Amino acid sequence: MKKVFDPQHYKTTTREQWQTAAEAWHRWHPTLKSWLGPATDLMLDMAEVKEGYRVLDIAAGAGEQSITAAEKVGPNGYVLATDLAPKILDYALELANEKGINNIEIQEIDGENLTLPDNSFNTVISRVGLIFFPDQQKALKEIKRVLKPGGFVAAIVYSTVDKNQFFSTPVSVIRRRAQLPPPLAGQPGPFSLSAEGVLDDAFKQAGFTNVQSKIVSAPVKMEKAEDCVRFEYESFAALHQMLGGLSDREKTAAWEEIRVELSKFEDENGFSGPCELVVGVGQKPLE
Fold first, then answer.
1. d(CA 106, CA 127)
2. DSSP 8-state code for residue 220
3. What does UniProt give as the signal peptide span (predicted)?
4. Which CATH class name applies to 7-158+184-219+277-283?
5. For the chain, is the Cβ count within 10 Å smaller at the N or the C terminus?
6. At what angle do helices 225-235 and 7-27 cross, to 10 degrees?
7. Under the phi-then-psi rule, with left for phi > 0, alpha for psi from -120 to 50, and beta for the rest, what region is 179?
8. How far apart are CA 284 and CA 121, in angstroms?
9. pTM (two decimals)
């Protein structure tokens, strides 16, 4: 019998994963800032985010990019950070409080069903979040609904597997060792919007105009490959789910192979894990 993708089960599992990984994702926020910070700045610039704007962050996670947006819109602006996993949002608020930023609110929301008014935000952003939505078009149409006319949606996604070996390497090792089948057609995941033009096409299909995207090299830089392994071991809950069927000894062996494979990206200057991102924007037509 052919296996069918179950979006509701996927959402439940994803929520549990991020509830589990919340503390680690928060703890690693300096790494996230140095790794994804330049692409985040570009995303906000491409979306023409200005002082005083209202910004909605979809799948905000631990909120490091929400805080960057809050700093950009200033005290007269407002950021609503949303996610399926409330625990990780608590860390977003904690980080904002540590930085003395008080123009952020958090709310547990499914990005495909935004319980928010029409035409209520200047900008909607999603950093490495849209790729994990089972129904990306539904999410984009909801985003379009809550945007003010002329407002921008902006997203960061991973480009192709071969350009993102910092992550595709452990995934391929685990998939082989756990004897997992390839992802089902249309299934959400890290590379679901990776091919050239796919993010642009998704925006256009949802009715956005003035669509554009840029490629950004964003290597994961650390002292050693084993630091990256630790980052992924602690923060990437989906990898543990993929390993679920293996014994403890087999899991240990898999992580050791991942360390060996990732060490190929380490030299006398440290570790530089290949990562390439696509930053895309689209504009809601003026009505």
1. 16
2. E
3. none
4. alpha beta
5. N
6. 130
7. left
8. 11
9. 0.95
